Amino acid sequence: MVRARGRSRPKPLTRLFDLLVGEPAHFVMQTRQFRNLRARVGADT
User: Fold this and answer.
1) E strand or H helix at 29
2) Angle at the Cα of 3 (from 41 to 32), degrees rounded to 5?
3) How many whole angstroms separate alpha carbon 31 and alpha carbon 28?
4) What's the whole-number mean pLDDT along residues 9-19?
5) What percentage of the chain's residues is helix, strand, coil (to nearest 5)?
6) CA–CA distance from 43 to each of 22, 36, 37 (Å)?
7) Digit-coded pLDDT (tens) for 20-31
8) CA 45, CA 12: separation in Å to the nearest integer?
9) pTM for this predicted structure
10) Helix H or strand E encompassing 6
């Protein structure tokens, strides 16, 4: 589970930026973190 919170203005512009740039970037970073975590857990067994 991932949770994030923030405040900014102007809201319509911020929401557009978040949808076009923030969400995809977050998805890529989170996917890499999980892949690295899976590799570390698998390396210990």
Assistant:
1) helix 23-44
2) 40
3) 5
4) 84
5) 75, 0, 25
6) 32, 10, 10
7) 998 999 999 999
8) 48
9) 0.63
10) none
